[in-house]
TrEMBL record:
PROSITE patterns assigned: ABC_TM1 (PS50928)
Chain segments annotated as transmembrane: 12-29, 78-102, 114-134, 146-166, 203-226, 246-267
Keyword line: Cell membrane, Membrane, Transmembrane, Transmembrane helix, Transport
Location of the ABC transmembrane type-1 domain: 74-267
Predominant location category: membrane
Domain of life per record: Bacteria
Pfam families assigned to the protein according to its UniProt record, in alphabetical order: BPD_transp_1
Protein source organism: Streptomyces xantholiticus
Transport among keywords: yes
Protein known as: Carbohydrate ABC transporter permease
Amino acid sequence: MRSRLYPVFKYTVIALWACFVAGPFFWAMTTSFKDVNGVQGGATYLPWLQYEPTVTGWRNIFGGAGGVDVMQPFVNSAVVTVAASAISLVLGSLAAYALSRYRFKLGFIKNSDIVFFFVSQRIMPPVVLVIPFFYLLQWTGLLDTILGLVIVTVALLLPIAVWVMVDFFNGIPREIDEMAMLDGCGPFQTFVRAILPNSLPGLTVAAMFCAVFGWNDFFFAFRLTFTEVQTLPQAVVALNSSIPPWWTLSAAALFGVAPLILLALWVERYLSKGNLSGAVR
């Protein structure tokens, strides 16, 4: 009896959780194709049956009347996210490999303490960091610039890359390093030629985390940019006036989350650790 009820219970829980997760997306999708009459008409979700769909909300986010053009903020967010994620992956992978394969000690400070130091940078509340970042960028003339935002974002994403890659490098057999060195590779060549090709799943996970955190950052972009640079989260929040145009706001929110969904679908194939099978010869 228990064996028959368990699958029913399991799939019921999964279905309920899927509905809970997909519910806000479904609401935003239906709202994005409404106008003021459709929104004020109450809870309506079936197009053509309960309301007449319109593309007013989508037209508004691309510079239509009463809306805002999100293309430049989209480009700004893409540049900041891609640049910061790439730099964080390069620096984070190098630091993680050193922490995984070599032993560092300065008094009571060891490798585990250094890794914790990196992770602790994400523990601190963002409000603690924004004032030092503000004065640093102001002093260097990078306030309200793409470059300044990239530098700050790298500081936020680097701990994530180090944390993910240290754990992954620890799971790669050291025999791979030894065989590469027997073939005449130095430490850096071993890292590039032997370790990185076997680290694609870990790099994918780290890149995904970096992309999500970098793309969704609003607090630092809001505090460190003003008129010259605006990211997509800022543009979406700017639509939330005293009387929010829910159709435009929903379209902008879906447009903002779409790149992350497409990225997740594209990199899903690389998330299997089975790529390491046969790596040790």
